[in-house]
# Entry
Amino acid sequence: MQLIVLGINHKTAPVELRERFSVSGDQVAGQYDYLLKYSQSHHGDAGGGAGCSVEEALIISTCNRVEYYMLTDDEQIPLNAVSKFFNISQELLRKHSFVYVGNDAVKHLMQVASGIDSLVLGEPQIMGQVKDSFAKARENGAVKRFLNRLEQSVLSTAKKVRTFTGISENAVSVSYAAVGLAKKIFGSLEGRKALIVGAGQMCELAAEHLHSSGIDCIFITNRTFESAVALASKFGGKAIAFDDFTGTLAEVDIVISSTGADSYVINAGDVEIAMKKRRNAPIFFIDIAVPRDIDPNVDKLNNVYLYDMDDLEQVIEKNSEKRKSEAEKAKLIIDESVLKFEKRMKIADAEPLIVKMRDLARMINEYELERYCSKNKIEDPNEIEKIRYLLYSASNKLLHAPSVGFKKLIAKDEITEDAFVELFDINKTK
Amino acid sequence: MFNYDVAVFLYVLSLLILLINLYFNKPFLRILQMVFTCVGVFFNSIPVASYIAGDVAVNSLQNTLMIATLSLAAIYCVVCFLFRKDSPGLFILPIVVICGMFAIFNNSVAYKSNINDLLLYVHIPLATIGASFFTASFACGIMYFILERELKQKRFGKIFDRFPPLIKIAELSCALAYIGFAFYTSGLLAATGWLRMHMSYLTSSYAGMQSAGMYSADLQSADGLTFKIIVSVFAWIIFAIISFMRIKVNLNAKQTMIASIIGFAVVLLMYLGVVMFTVR
# Structure
């Protein structure tokens, strides 16, 4: 049995195709049921007959990827099963998917959970999504010994990557970078006030980041007042009329603007008046609109910091570079984890043999005990128990070193299971 | 002096690591540098503790500089701990190292005379610690202007990454100036008490002073006293004005930084005055 992954993601397939594979919450149970019952003969016929089957399965489905992890003997099973389930030709699926086998599949899952394989490198949500996927697989009875151990390794590796590398430290989205810049001026945003001019998607994202950074109050203004009210209610902010929002400039520390206006909505004169009112306390402007919303002359004023899209892109580019270099460190951590997992699984695979060896010892002990007692006519149970104790302690002590040694050697690939079976004559005796 | 030599050596190492880490930016180097500084503070505190305990006279320039290096390095450790950034060391550690070197190579010997009493022993550490806080406040002022320039010019390089947030630097500088002012004021009050006690000696003729049992060093010291008093009081007034304006007039961060730098210039002038006119 080996782990095989068949996946479709943002790198291999266009969104139109990815849509066809997306798995909704209701469909998951049916899909697991299908995979776990799936079996095929060596000719590739699906259903019912004797042949290779899927022992354990895991489906990871996010907006950018759908991946099927299966523990099976036949490398063809994932391709056949998935193409049959979605009624898609194998050629098309093969063209737009990837397949990894064994350690490569384990490595890929660790990379996914660590955010290395994500569209936005190091994005933090994926780890939670992988955790949820394991939980769903477990609910559907698709997680057994192998995937259980794999889950532990994958999640601990992802945590390690986040702790020991800066892969998710630097902002790589415009709205997040804007908030990051604000933090560079103010430090913590707690106790600060922000004004958002506009109520579009960018403004919503910025409001979300500001809100999660603990900002004290968010004012939102928009030409359509209802949109401002809707956005404000979402983040516990305050909607203000577009006609007189410049009066609020004296109160706020951060201004983020993204409207579709053709001309400036904030002029240097407005800011100059506001600065006098706020006794020149620093104010931070982010203009993420194209064409720009804020008069560039605002930046010439003292204690005023204005950044536009070009500046933010500069920050994002730099941060992306940093994340890429951190990803290299993360890959080393993952390689190490894959090796550790491989060793762990080898040891786990060896355990049944050790159990068999001890069973064999127990059988021999009992056989010899019975023979000795009948030959010497020993019938006293206390006497028999004493002899049993002696036998078992001697054999346990004798078998301890081979048990530990076998685990060590098999992890290093210095012994095979066959050699162990041969040495202790396990199968023959059985 | 052995303990102090070790302390200065550790400060030098710490500064070197800080400079090297400007290029490499490795967390373990940052930790190592902090460890060196903290251990340096420990070694530095041993001779200072013995002076304050009264074993040795505290009134030589060497001893004063030892207190200055100890307080500056300790302030740096606290600042690093608060901000998790080592960049303030770029401005504070060179001052620590220069003062430390000067203390090591300055062979002035502390002396005891009739006018050395408890108030003088209290005055010198308090005034020195106060001046150290002013120095750290000045370092933050410089950091503020450098970071402000980077932010205005939209340069997101090493300075942008390694410096604490702009407003936090301003707040820190202000807090350091306030604490320094409290120490400095206490030091000046102790000095005033000391002056009042010994005014009759210090204003009498040399012959009179000698007859009162004063040493020749005291006599030389008395010459520069007027200059020292004027500059010290002037420094106190400057920081009093800064503190008042910060609270009452609500100075903005930039104005406070300018004031801190002016205040430090006055303190520096005071030090120069002390060194040029009153050092024995």
